[in-house]
Sugar 3,4-ketoisomerase QdtA cupin domain-containing protein (Mesonia mobilis), 141 residues
Amino acid sequence: MKTSLNDIHFIEIPKISDPDGRGNLSVIEKNILPYKVERIYYLYDVPSDSTRGGHAHIKLQQSLIALSGSFDVVLDDGEKREIVTLNKPNKALYIAPGIWREIENFSSGAVCLAIVSEVYKEEDYIRDYQEFLKFKSDRQH
């Protein structure tokens, strides 16, 4: 399966606003995400000049949410590169397998929630960008 940046999209997380002004509640349940959730993790206290990610996955599907603050997600399908800013806790960014991702430009207090389709398996990671380009090239033939 060849994936591209066209396979990346936002998922609206239902937001329930309290009529008395006591804040909002968002819920992820049922079929909101297009895969079964196997793992959840989050990044926090990341210095603004640090970059996280720097890899692609062979099978893993992932949704990222800025629970607090903001950060940029650099997405690369081997042909095109795009930067998406996440800053709303009721919007998830769905990332298909076979997409290189880097997360950068963390604001103070930013929290990045990752909801993923697989448990951790090192063999699912492509951590070298040149290997990623070869992987993408092999998928085109």
Summary: Helices lie at 129-140. The chain has one domain: 5-140. The chain has one helix and twelve strands. The first strand starts at residue 9 and ends at 12.
